[in-house]
Amino acid sequence: MNRSDDLCHVLTEDHHELRQLLVELNHLTASEPLWRSLADLLIAEMTRHSVAEESYLYPVVRDRVPEGRRLVDEYLAEHEKLERMVKILERHDLPGPELSRLVARLDTEVRAHMRAEEEELFPMLIEHLGAEERAALGRKAAAAKKEASMRQRLPDHPVLKAIIATGAGLIERVRGHLRGRAYPR
After folding, report:
1. What CATH number is given for 3-149 in this structure?
2. To the nearest whole number, what is the mean pLDDT of the chain?
3. Which segments constitute the Hemerythrin-like domain (predicted)?
């Protein structure tokens, strides 16, 4: 078993990525062109992450962890709250100050949710689920997230795909540079 396959590790890595995106968004103003691209990337990443949790983490917690049903209901309620906030973030007609307040509030809520999972839920999962089973779930979650990629849902138009791929490449290069220099783990 590869440690990076572990479901808890896969989801914790997502948490690192989401925290990084939130830091970057909080350091830009909504009027900057990169802001919207990062906001859209955050929305896509949060969506993929939520789907992975709801498909692979929460069902096994519900079935195998004591009080799992209650815990999962609480986490799903938090997902619904975050989803409502993300739907507002998707809007393109909100003034900059309102978007900045929304991102700050989303940052607080997302960080609290991730901290609770990492400190409460993941240790319970490790206690009640074997390493091989967690690895199998982690591989499935990673594959599902990859399959849900935003770029795979584009219409089959070569010019549109090339433009979006170029923009995504730039964002990924900028994020890689920032992650390597300014935000070491």
Report:
1. 1.20.120.520
2. 81
3. 9-125
